[in-house]
Automatic annotation (TrEMBL):
It comes from Stephanodiscus triporus. InterPro entries: Leu-rich_rpt, Leu-rich_rpt_typical-subtyp, LRR_dom_sf, Plant_RL_S/T_kinase. One of its GO terms (molecular function) is ATP binding. This is L domain-like protein. It is a single-pass membrane protein. GO terms for cellular component: plasma membrane.
């Protein structure tokens, strides 16, 4: 059958002209998140894609079953309703497909529908007809029979607009696409507890409410406020010049409830941001209808169900997606190999969920990926070598999963890496010397694994490295002298390994001006405490307990260890006296040292203690 594609045109909707906002939505900061990401402002290049229609989108009128038809057919309007059917067929407008088409740049060719535009009954029926089409398309026809459903509330609300002082326009075929977005937004309002929203709520609703109130009589593009907060400013809703919704930013808005399938009506949407809310339920599969979607962000909600569903991850799915952020929810399921089809992806975040299965090798196709975060899930298997293809990856965090195997050599070819977190898995094998190639690294966390071998000297290239976590592994060998080159280092944690040799004096110098934390306890270190240890300018915690250190603790000079808070020495073979110069930096005498622990307890069997200490806070035998 020949069909005319409904396109958008410059038609006004309700009162007020459609505002054209070109400003990109600034995705505001999220200070509470455990880790900060660089915000990628998704440029809103409108992809003039040719949409694909599938057979299932078509709903010939004779396929409508009586049950669902009832809800759209006010008894007294039965004939009108049927007339509408005829009319629509006559116009050869396939409304069910109208919005599954991708936007077309060209202006419309409009034909004048032969309906009485002044007739409110015609208006109601035309809207009902359209809502029915929408409900069929997104699978919510059932909800239309429940008078309390968000769909029913939205339907009743929009039908009332036929009798408004400025009635809703329903005549032009280009209105169809605008009216169905209006309806879909109303469903979202009712589904997500709109009356309680921090911004945009409009209980009643009050049709005469001004801009910034949802469900007002205004053009819906004026429903969204411009929000300025300490975290930046953004528009709650942005439309294009035709009135199509491009961005919704409903972050931190006290939204409670499920995202309705009607989100799939907003086919021009490029960005749906709704982190820090209480959205529940699954991601509607109709998300797959949003072919232009670049950003989907539901972080920190209560959502559940399969995170990656075939309806939106396949070839017909969100192939334009750039940012997919779903961390801190209760999502389950596995990562399908079709993830490799999301080739524009830059941010894939699903940390703190319950995702199982393995990381498919197809992630290697995601060559634009910048941040891949999936810490705290139940992912097993190995790190695929294909991850080495991700040349733009600067942040990889897979902490607290069940990943095993070795760290693939290919990972060390991701030269943009700044944060690499492999902590708390079951990784075996060694850390390659190639780690020295990753000279952008600021954080390298490989703690709580079963890593063997020695600490590579390659680390000495990592002049940006700030945090090094090696603790709780099976590392052997010495602490490289080269650590003295790590000029940006602030945090070294290497406790609970099997390290041998001495503590390099290079760790305590002006070369490492920012070193605050040094945990070397529970190893097999020998030799004496370096004479220069007090010269570490900012050192706060020095834990060297539970080793085989010998000799006497060196004294310090005035002005040294000004920031030292914890010095743990117990369970070593140190002897002699703790010098009074250390007692002077205790927090009881004006310094900062609050913990000074040593083997200063006389043995139970009698005799002198191993160490004499007049000011230690805890004495061990
Ligand atoms: C900024 O963001 C934080 C974290 O989301 C939030 O707690 C805080 O209320 C926000 N501040 C403002 C003024 O919106
Ligand atoms: C490691 O992850 C498990 C869950 O997989 C968690 O229970 C445990 O607390 C984590 N340990 C550390 C040290 O982070
Ligand atoms: C000294 O530090 C210890 C341990 O941090 C703390 O419990 C104590 O309150 C501090 N005392 C003073 C006087 O600051």
């Amino acid at each position: 059958m020949g069909r005319r594609i409904i396109r958008t045109a410059l038609l006004s909707l309700g009162a007020g002209a459609i505002a054209s906002k070109s400003a990109a939505v600034s995705e505001s900061n999220r200070g509470q998140l455990r880790r900060q990401a660089r915000q990628t402002s998704s440029s809103s290049q409108q992809q003039q894609q040719q949409g694909r229609l599938t057979e299932s989108n078509k709903s010939p009128p004779d396929a409508i079953d009586e049950k669902s038809r009832r809800f759209f057919k006010p008894a007294s309007h039965e004939e009108l309703y049927l007339d509408m059917r005829e009319l629509i067929l006559e116009l050869n407008v396939d409304m069910s497909m109208s919005t599954t088409m991708a936007p077309e740049p060209a202006p419309v060719q409009t034909s004048t529908p032969s309906i009485d535009c002044a007739n409110a009954e015609t208006c109601a029926n035309r809207l009902l007809e359209q809502i029915f089409q929408v409900s069929e398309r997104v699978g919510t026809t059932e909800a239309q029979s429940d008078q309390m459903s968000p769909q029913s509330k939205a339907r009743d609300w929009i039908i009332e607009e036929c009798d408004a002082v400025t009635p809703i326009e329903y005549c032009g075929e280009t209105q169809l696409i605008l009216n169905e977005q209006r309806y879909a937004l109303a469903v979202m309002y009712f589904s997500l507890g709109g009356d309680e929203w921090n911004v945009g709520s409009n209980p009643g609703p009050d049709k005469s409410a001004g801009p910034g109130k949802w469900l007002s009589g205004l053009n819906y593009c004026d429903w969204g406020s411009e929000i300025t907060s300490a975290n930046g400013s953004y528009d709650q809703m942005v439309c294009d010049e035709f009135g199509n919704v491009l961005y919704l930013n409903l972050q931190s808005n006290n939204m409670v409830g499920e995202i309705p399938p009607e989100i799939g009506v907003l086919v021009y949407m490029e960005s749906y941001i709704s982190f820090f809310n209480a959205q529940s339920g699954p991601i509607p599969t109709t998300l797959g209808l949003l072919k232009l979607l670049e950003t989907f962000d539901v972080e920190s909600n209560n959502m559940e169900g399969d995170l990656f569903q075939p309806e939106y991850i396949g070839l017909d799915g969100l192939t334009n997606i750039v940012n997919f952020r779903a961390s801190i929810n209760n999502f389950g399921g596995t990562i399908p190999s079709d993830i490799g089809l999301w080739t524009r992806l830059q941010n894939l975040w699903f940390a703190e969920n319950e995702i199982t299965g393995t990381i498919p090798s197809e992630v290697g196709y995601l060559v634009d990926m910048e941040a891949f975060l999936f810490y705290t899930n139940q992912i097993s298997g190995t790190i695929p070598t294909e991850i080495g293809n991700l040349d733009k990856l600067y942040w990889l965090d897979m902490e607290s999963n069940q990943i095993d195997g070795t760290i693939p050599e290919e990972l060390y070819s991701n030269l943009a890496l700044e944060t690499l977190v492999l902590k708390n898995n079951s990784l075996t094998g060694t850390i390659s010397e190639l780690v020295g190639n990753l000279n952008m690294l600021t954080s390298f966390w490989v703690s709580f694994n079963e890593i063997t071998g020695t600490i590579p000297t390659g680390f000495n290239n990592l002049l940006s490295l700030e945090e090094l976590e090696l603790q709780y592994n099976l590392l052997t060998g010495v602490i490289p002298e080269e650590f003295g080159n790590l000029e940006s280092i602030a945090f070294i944690s290497a406790e609970n390994n099997m390290l041998t040799g001495t503590i390099p004096s290079g760790l305590f110098s002006d070369n490492l001006p920012g070193l605050r934390i040094l945990y070397l306890n529970n190893n097999r270190l020998t030799g004496t405490v370096p004479e220069n240890y007090g010269r570490s300018p900012r050192l706060q915690d020095l834990w060297i307990n539970d080793n085989f250190l010998t000799g006497t603790l060196p004294s310090i000079t005035e002005g040294e260890f000004l920031f030292l808070e914890e010095l743990l020495l117990q369970n070593n073979e140190l002897t002699g006296a703790v010098d009074v110069s250390l007692c002077r930096i205790l927090n009881t005498t004006g310094g900062n040292l609050g913990r000074l622990d040593a083997d200063c307890q006389p043995p139970a069997g009698g005799g002198p203690p191993q160490i004499t200490c007049n000011c230690c806070t805890t004495c061990y035998e």
